[in-house]
TrEMBL record:
Family: Belongs to the glycosyl hydrolase 1 family.
Lineage of the organism: Bacteria, Bacillati, Actinomycetota, Actinomycetes, Streptosporangiales
Database matches in SUPFAM superfamilies: (Trans)glycosidases
Species of provenance: Sphaerisporangium rhizosphaerae
EC nos: 3.2.1.-
One Pfam assignment: Glyco_hydro_1
Protein name: Glycoside hydrolase family 1 protein
Molecular function via GO: hydrolase activity, acting on glycosyl bonds
Amino acid sequence: MPNLSAFPPEFLWGASSAGHQIEGGNLASDFWEMEHAPGSVFAEPSGDACDGYHRWREDVGLLAGIGLNAYRFSIEWSRVEPEEGRFSRAAIDHYRRVVEGCHERGVTPVVTLQHITVPRWFRRSGWWTGPEAAARFARFTEAVLPIVSEGVGHVCTINEPNFAAMLEHDLAPARAAAGAPAAPGPAVTEAFITAHRRAVEVLRSVPGPACGWTVCVVDHQPVEGAEEAAAAWARPRQDVFLEAAKGDDFVGVQVYTRELIGPHGPLPVPEGAETTQIGWEYYPEAVGGAVRHAATVTGGTPILVTENGVATADDTRRAEYLTRALRALKAAMDDGADVRGYFHWSLLDNFEWLLGYRPTFGLIAVDRATFARTVKPSAHVYGAIARSGRLPGP
């Protein structure tokens, strides 16, 4: 009989970050350019972010001090290849030092090759639907092999391609004003899948880490009689990306909330339900439904929960969210889902894309003027679970 409170001893307990959202000064990035464009849809520019490019040692040390054993971070493509075909040895050495610094602190690094942002030249050459996109991403993957080929357990090729495709719609003011797109189009979906597979080929050309990608998965819950509608809604938005993970070493599941689906699509958040700083329903149990769904769609590809968290200024709600989410995750594991790790989003309060710095997801607060880090009480709640590998009592 499974132990209903204990996680496997080799389980990865971590937190996640992303280069553009924490590093600061990412001048060669497409997002930096769009943040500063006239009429920008961004609430504010990323600026210095959390100064994470220089303060990574402190951040990894704080993560380890909390009691976590894994750190997911990304390589910023525009730093490594600021101009097409011109690679920065200094940037490659920097990210290799982060890998080595994790090991010095007893932390397992999990590395994402591309997290939403791309170099300016890549966007100008057609973004992911450009004719050479997959080849260019494969070339970049080969260039960063010195970072990830030794001492990195898992490499995520592309972060949330389904979210990136939807976000692309919102980056132009005219498109954003027109409302949400129906779903990622077939051309961009295929472009992402092709680029991912080319990168996996490169990674598997040398002995090294497990390879996969991460997918934004909403826990779609159909109301009675809307099961077919829910399946039709989910397929182009997430399931086609999960299906592409069949045959990979793992798939990253990134989940924050549920969505009720009626016969004609998503329903509003239930009346009276608690909501987060960005209007999503506060629903920690979504991780259990998302993991079960991913396990079914992928046919059993091993899973890392690479992002899960809540945007709230009330840290007691974050602590509650973490505990309930981990209970739901463990129940899914006891029911047969092959989950190898859990990464909270995010390690730091950081830049949250179009919304700027207002939403706070972090286990650690960051002073916007001094960059001083302050560990929140919720981090210690999470750390106690991670250290013991057990859920608290009811």
